[in-house]
Specification:
Chain A is an all-beta fold. Chain A contains no helices and 11 strands. Chain B contains no helices and 11 strands. In chain B, strand 7 and strand 8 form a beta hairpin. Chain B is globular and about 40 Å long. The model of chain B has no long low-confidence stretch (mean pLDDT about 90).
């Protein structure tokens, strides 16, 4: 079956660093995406990993280990506006080609 | 232009009504998607259109009927919905999402918040 897991909620302090983990078990893997979704709004693209290693984009970095079925999103210098849900999504090529979303992590940034 | 637009923003309908949700993109994307999202849950895939043909239907009840009139437009026709169908309906598009090549980034519309009474 297809399974993507993330912690349900996390809390961190403004200015700190937080790591949001995503583990996946999918038959057929062709890339992993991270999206940010503020309450009541649409998801917006943050990052994409298809090869092992770290992708850095400003305050946000994403890491992938395909052999471990594991990814994380690292947010540095947290700001209040980073309070949102963070969705991990795998592009799977098993049977049909589609994106499967993880359970999402609600991050609360405190002053 | 990396925008996906959806109308209406909000919709309230009775269980006997017929209504339609609309989605439009002008990025030249050839894959378009409908997702349903309940509060505090991730988006659930409903349908995928690839090159204007329905390529994925995730066992969605027939009271939801998708339509792709052309490469820029995607509709979702609603009929005889149930209160449990109340949710945020998201449309998304990507360059090429179902050909097996490198996936494109999905761009999401703002969604239609649907309430079924």
């Amino acid at each position: 079956g297809q399974n993507i897991d993330q912690p349900t909620e996390m809390t961190a302090t403004e200015g700190a660093i937080v790591q949001i983990n995503c583990t996946y078990q999918t038959s057929g893997f062709n890339g992993l995406f991270w999206y940010q979704q503020h309450a009541g709004e649409a998801p917006t693209f943050l990052s994409y990993n298809v090869l092992d290693g770290l992708e850095e984009k400003g305050r946000f970095s994403s890491f992938l280990s395909r052999s471990k079925g594991y990814s994380y999103l690292l947010l540095k210098e947290l700001q209040m506006k980073d309070s949102a849900s963070y969705l991990c999504a795998v592009y799977t090529t098993s049977g049909t080609y589609k994106y499967i979303f993880g359970t999402g992590t609600r991050l609360k940034v405190l002053a | 232009d990396t925008e996906v637009t959806q109308t209406p923003k909000h919709l309230v309908m009775g269980m006997t009504n017929k209504k339609s949700l609309k989605c439009e993109q002008h990025m030249g994307h050839r894959a378009m998607y409908w997702y349903k999202q309940k509060a505090k849950k991730p988006p659930e895939l409903m349908f995928v259109y690839s090159y204007e043909k329905l390529s994925i239907n995730e066992s969605v009840p027939s009271r939801f009927s998708p339509e792709c009139p052309n490469s820029s437009l995607l509709n979702l026709h609603l009929h005889a919905l149930q209160p449990e169908d109340s949710a945020l309906y998201l449309c998304a598009s990507s360059q090429e999402g179902t050909s097996g090549g490198a996936p494109g980034t999905q761009y999401f519309g703002p969604g239609t918040r649907l309430l079924v009474l």
